[in-house]
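Re-run requested by the PI after the first attempt was lost when the workstation crashed. Everything re-entered from the original request form. Ligand of interest: fe (ii) ion.
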Amino acid sequence: MFLKNNWYVAGFREELTTKPLARTLLGEPVVMFRTESGEVAALEDRCCHRNLPLSHGKVEGNALSCGYHGMVYNTAGQCIRVPGQDVIPTGACVMHFPLVEKDGLLWIWMGDADAARTQAIPDYPFHSDPRWAHKGNHYTINCHYELIHDNLIDLSHVGYVHGKTIGGTPGAHSEAQMSTERRDDGVTVRRFMPGTIPPPTYLRAMNFTGNIDRWMEIRFVPGLIRIYIGVNDAGQGFDEKTQMDKMGMRIFNGVTPETENTTHYFWTAAHNFRVTEPEVTNNFHSEIAATFEEDRTVVEAQQKRFEQFPGRKNVHIKTDAGGIHARRVMAQLMETEKTREGQAGVATRVPQTA
Ligand code: FES
Ligand SMILES: [Fe+2]
């Protein structure tokens, strides 16, 4: 079950060219493409003639032609040409999904297209602010998306899972000063770790000679977890005005269900130090990539056990507060969506003849 009326990350802007890109999102096969005039579009990846995936076809001008018998679809999914005949058959169309480029990302709406509001797409200025440099990647993770939510919202695991990179000193992470702000549409967890030992990744990037103060803010909304991190020499404080710490990091985590038990993970790591040195950005990216591989091992192993023991109860501990609230938010929003669908008496998405 998925929350459909929500903006999800479908990819990075640079991934989309006039070569069709196939991706399964929320269990639906989707083809995305860029027209020759630069517009982006997403359609159901299935020709309405004989079901060949439209991703086998090619972009022609501002439309997509099927790779089997050449039917041509516009960006709204309407068939606009059938080779060898003048008449377009009734109902010759496929579903289309609103797709928007913003902050270097492709955002897709898989629910009721009439309810899609582009103003609701979350902001992420760190991909274009020159005070920050970033690099990212896309992984497919073999687990349910909520295991990734849990992992990113509860960073008390950092000391245990990421000892070689951003972790070490497990006690400092478990004992961080923590607050959880619960909202109807999300949750924000704040963590502060004063006077702790700098972990290996930080020492490789910056010359900390003594202990450090670390703050972290983890902002969850469905489909996205933004992690903001600031590090300063212990006792130096934080500049509220510039929001620029000695070592500032911003981690973007687009979490988009692929299927019920696989998840697209679109991430970037941005830093505010030595931003004009590509080598530093590459190294920082590699360090974060290594930590995410450690997380992948954990969540994929958990997934196997959840499948093996579906009825077994799990206990909760204090640091689960944010993750539990995120689950409540998802459950509540899905429930509301289901009720509305039921009241409307129709499936939210059916192909529309233009
Ligand atoms: S299957 Fe697409 S045109 Fe025939
Ligand atoms: Fe992690």
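Saved to the shared folder this time. Residues 93 and 144 are 32 Å apart (CA to CA).
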